[in-house]
Amino acid sequence: MSERIIITLAQLNQTAGDLQGNTARILEAAGKAAQNSDILLTPELSVCGYPPEDLLLMDSFIRDCGLKLEEIRTASEAWPNLAILVGHPSRREGKLYNCVSVVKGGKILLCYEKKELPNYGVFDEARYFFPGGEQKQVFQIKDTVFGIAVCEDVWFENASKAAKAQGAQILLIPNASPYEEGKLNQRLEKIKNNVTALGMDAVYVNMAGAQDEIVFDGASFACSQEGVLARLAYFDAALGQVAVENGRVVKGAVEPQPEAVELLYRALVTGFRDYVQKNKFKGIVLGLSGGVDSALVLKIAVDAVGADNTLAVMMPSVYTSSLSRRDALALADRLGVRFETISIQDGYSAFEFMLARQFQGKPKDVTEENLQARIRGVILMAISNKFSSMVATTGNKSEMAVGYSTLYGDLAGGYAVLKDVYKTQVYEICRWLNRAQNVFPETILTRPPTAELRENQKDQDSLPDYGVLDGILKRFIEEREDTHQIVKAGYKHEDVQRVLTMLQRAEYKRRQSPIGPKVTKVAFGRDWRFPVTDKYKL
């Protein structure tokens, strides 16, 4: 009879550059796993965090990562029966590799170098690493042979085939795979095609938490040709175990997959929470306008860092409606956050007086609208400075795409949690939340959206209907369709041209906007690299 093997999956929330903290979490997991496990599987680059970016260009950083690996090797002497798979950068013959070492009983049994280096979207591994070549990528525990492949390796078949050729029965796959819509099913499809189709079961561990713009959804799993056999929690750090008998994974507990809107919301909360906590901000401050975007950001902030750490500030002008005031106050009361009202009218009047000579004879236009937004930005940044809190901006992807925002106004802040969320998705999330919790006053969701910077202003005075706008934007940004293809899909040529012209002109604003969590296939930031000075007609 085959000996039973227990694998502990360490779904860790690591931080780039936190070598001490990351190593401590690995060793803590190892101490727990050693009680009854044979293998501990940690995520990709678990020692240094992912992505370490240009820290990898520093010799001292690579050296210090090596010292932490040595610390883990030394500590492993206390657990002679536990094989620890740990991810780290390593230099060999002048070349840097993305590695996974198998550490057991004070020895390094194997150091595997990642073969496939992603160089698209948020990934730029070819900037730092060399691809691994032909190498040993298997080791044996009891009577079972385990292979190793790292993240992108299993999106192709070469690494899996090499492991299989070396006798692997089960493939262990450390990952730092970011969340985006549809990614969970995409991972399973790649594993099915490139791993289990070869006759190997797969054990896949993913990172949890967030690092700057990137959110890691966890959801580590084991699967065979029959499907998913075990799955850990989504987004949160966790330890889980799978058993192996006769060279096959034994079916265990499977965390059910939430619906798409819940996954999206949890990704936003996770990204927000980790950005605030890992950067040690003492609290959150945001402008609460009575509109849907700031309402959703307030709810995310409360779920991420707590009502006690969140301040909502209403900053009315003469254009702010009584409905906006009532809705903002009602929402703040429902969520239990601190709420303050600071009128911008005196500040606006002072600026009008200061600029009266320069603006003499000129009619009012967008200048005065932007001035209001910038006064609000100054107020929020002053509160931020005084109380060491972070300003959460409230603009969404639709607005950011077409420049419906004000530099040094509503774009001023530390984190844009809705940066990759279209306006239509904002409403979808809010309605989903209301079904379960009745969070938002109904008028926030039903009134026409408005910036309230002039009399009777509506967003659709300046923009197409959001359903049309978002449809065009998604086709261009995420599907890479051109004008002809978008028109062929049923959109009016004049609408497409108008939207894409606004998109192109707004690039300079996007370059100066805060970072925010990536949740779609193509997010503004690392995914999006269009020139600011651009004469090509879209």
What does the model show?
With 538 residues, the chain is of the alpha/beta class. 36% of the residues lie in helices and 19% in strands. It has helices at 19-33, 59-75, 158-165, 183-194, 260-278, 292-305, 322-335, 345-354, 366-387, 397-402, 423-437, 442-446, 466-477, 483-488, 493-505, 507-510, and strands at residues 5-11, 39-41, 83-92, 95-104, 107-113, 138-141, 144-148, 170-174, 201-205, 208-211, 214-217, 221-224, 227-231, 238-245, 248-250, 284-287, 310-314, 338-341, 390-393, 415-416. It has a seven-stranded mixed β-sheet with strand order 5-4-3-2-1-14-15. Helix 1 (19-33) packs parallel to helix 2 (59-75), helix 5 (260-278) packs across helix 6 and helix 13 (466-477) packs across helix 15.
Give the C-alpha Rg: 26 Å
**What is the general shape?**
elongated
Helix percent band: 25-40%
Our count of helices gives: 16
Mean pLDDT: 96
Question: Count of DSSP E strands?
Answer: 20
Structural class: alpha/beta
Concise synopsis of the structure shown:
This protein has 16 helices and 20 strands. The chain is of the alpha/beta class and 538 residues long. The mean pLDDT is 96.
Give structural attributes.
single chain, alpha/beta, seven-stranded mixed β-sheet, six-stranded mixed β-sheet
Note the topology.
Blueprint lengths: L4 E7 L7 H15 L5 E3 L17 H17 L7 E10 L2 E10 L2 E7 L24 E4 L2 E5 L9 H8 L4 E5 L8 H12 L6 E5 L2 E4 L2 E4 L3 E4 L2 E5 L6 E8 L2 E3 L9 H19 L5 E4 L4 H14 L4 E5 L7 H14 L2 E4 L3 H10 L11 H22 L2 E4 L3 H6 L12 E2 L6 H15 L4 H5 L19 H12 L5 H6 L4 H13 L1 H4 L28
Parallel strand pairs: 1-2, 2-3, 7-8, 8-9, 16-17, 16-19, 17-18, 19-20
Antiparallel strand pairs: 1-14, 3-4, 4-5, 6-7, 9-12, 10-11, 12-13, 14-15
